[in-house]
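User: Modeling request: complex.
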Amino acid sequence: NAGVTQTPKFQVLKTGQSMTLQCAQDMNHNSMYWYRQDPGMGLRLIYYSASEGTTDKGEVPNGYNVSRLNKREFSLRLESAAPSQTSVYFCASSEAVPTSTEAFFGQGTRLTVV
Amino acid sequence: QKEVEQDPGPLSVPEGAIVSLNCTYSNSAFQYFMWYRQYSRKGPELLMYTYSSGNKEDGRFTAQVDKSSKYISLFIRDSQPSDSATYLCALRSTDYKLSFGAGTTVTVRA
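Assistant: Request completed. Predicted assembly structure:
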């Protein structure tokens, strides 16, 4: 059971380049999330998708776009990378039901923008 | 102001001590309260959750929620070196937005 799979695991970009981080889950979850994690700042929500066909901004959406391609996949795009976007990015998924609260995380993508 | 405030520490305690962690929040839409544990270079994993004010125990761990004060806590009794990790509070609103605190890094010294 793969759970939440993120690709790539590591990436180095030059300032101004674009890239898409991929995330797929095989748990039939409705909700999916993208976070960035920086030292001392915890997990900051970039975008989330409560269900297929919907996306909403989180705490730090500027400079990012997302696509909920289908129920399994939720991608994060950096159109013009900046050094401030150097971070570890985590994708997560959870069931969108009141009684289920656990979010399952991928292994993370370490992105460096030079 | 962040929706969820958590002191990032770090916190260092001797083995066997009680570890006390807490978060405050500002949004009344948060209805579910969780604690995640994250080991170095790994994704966070759920430790405990609750959706009502009061205490919830699970072995050496106790989660406490006070909705009226918008304050949540996690206590670790008889702490062990294996408890050394970063602990993040997480709150979910009714629209399934899941927000995290900054995380507190805990080291339990043998």
